[in-house]
Amino acid sequence: MSTWTAEDERAILASIETWVDKEVRPIARKFDQADEYPHALVEQMKELGLFGATISPEYGGLGLSADTYAKIVIEVASAWMAPSGIFNSHLIMASAVERFGTEAQKREWLPKMASGEFRGGIGLTEPNAGSDLQAIRTVARREGDHYVINGAKTWITNSGNGHGILLLAKTDPESQPRHKGMSLFIAEKGPGFQVSKKMKKLGYRAIDSCELSFDNFRIPTSRLVGGVEGKGFAQIAGGLELGRINVAARGCGIALGALRLALRYAQERSAFGKPISEHQAIQLKLAEMVTKVEASKLLIEQAARKYDAGERCDMEAAMAKFHGSEAGVFCASEAMRIFGGYSYSTEYEIERYYRDAMLMCIGEGTNEILQTIIAKQLVQRGGV
Questions:
Q1: Which listed residue (7, 288, 364, 368) is catalytic?
Q2: What is the DSSP letter of 163?
Q3: What is the DSSP letter of 8?
Q4: How do residues 222-269 score in pLDDT, each as one tens digit?
Q5: What is the pLDDT of residue 30?
Q6: Does domain 234-380 have CATH number 1.20.140.10?
């Protein structure tokens, strides 16, 4: 549980808002269009403590609640969604280490992660395994006091400019059920850990999403999360709750940013002798946009508070992610319509929101998969 008071958290949010306005918003278009990694911004994130946002103070982090963290993400994403991905994947990795790692692993890795000295991500997706994680083919074979890992990962955020990943591999490829043969490793870059290429993307630019290959990559047994094989699937599934809350917040941030741009433009642009904000067709769009934004905030808050209380929140996190990401797509699309022809010009920020939005419906579990999670949980819990 967070030890920050409500007043403390308001001050933190105010400082983030100032930073976003002064440092993030002014550079977003330049770095997005150049597809250039924002190194200076990352250094500022270190100073702000964002890489340790949800890590316990015991290990050098801020120990923020998931609720406050989500509000930070919404504010950052409302200006530029991409930078939130730099610390999101990193904090999912940190969450798994803190929740499931041995005490020695926590002491070794979490302080470095909290300071940003070690920046990580999560290595799950493979060319033939996305939503079906149990289909991964990366194998970790034990040899004495090391594991030898061979395989490939793809679409791995932070793997280019980061220092390592939380790697999911099969330690028992023949295990039935399949999930019992999967383990998590703290994989720091070294010989055999190869960044094959940076992916070219429609949106979410400037942030590195890469293909990775592992060719006899040797990793000490001390980096097996929790020290016990076969726990990896359950360990990463628990960490994804925080990730889905984050993606929900990123989608909500896109929706909020698109709404702000559309509202300002609608008040400035005139047609038929009056601002277009006074035309009913535009008013209907703005009304639905703001309603979706505010509904997303409430769903995110519900999921985050359950997470903070240590309660099961897979259904709540899935609902928040589903609604928040769809709100981002809807609001970005409607804002494009409000901007009209100018929406296609890169001189206006709105086209970036449109390009970034769809990723939120795909990342951290597709919305179709999440809807099945919601429905199954609804049945298992006996309804509402």
A1: 364
A2: S
A3: H
A4: 999 999 999 999 998 777 788 899 999 999 999 999 999 999 999 999
A5: 96
A6: yes
Yes or no: is domain 6-115 CATH 1.10.540.10? Answer: yes
Q: What is the mean pLDDT of the chain?
A: 95
Instruction: Give the start-to-end residue ranges of the domains of the chain.
Output: 6-115, 120-228, 234-380
* DSSP per residue, 34-88: HT---HHHHHHHHHHTGGGTTS-GGGTS----HHHHHHHHHHHHHH-SHHHHHHH
Residue 104: CB atoms within 10 Å = 10
* Structure token pair of residue 348: 């206006």
**Mean pLDDT on 64-81:** 97
Determine the Cα–Cα distance for residues 350 and 326; give it in Å rounded to an integer: 17
Measured distance CA(302)–CA(170) in Å, rounded:
35
CATH of range 120-228; options 2.170.150.70, 3.40.50.10860, 2.40.110.10, 3.30.70.1350: 2.40.110.10
Q: Is 364 a catalytic residue?
A: yes
Give the rounded distance of the alpha carbon of 371 from its chain centre. 19
Write out pLDDT tens, residues 165-222. 999 999 999 999 888 899 999 999 999 999 999 999 999 999 999 999 999 999 999 9
| Dihedral sign from CA coordinates of 231, 237, 238, 239 | positive
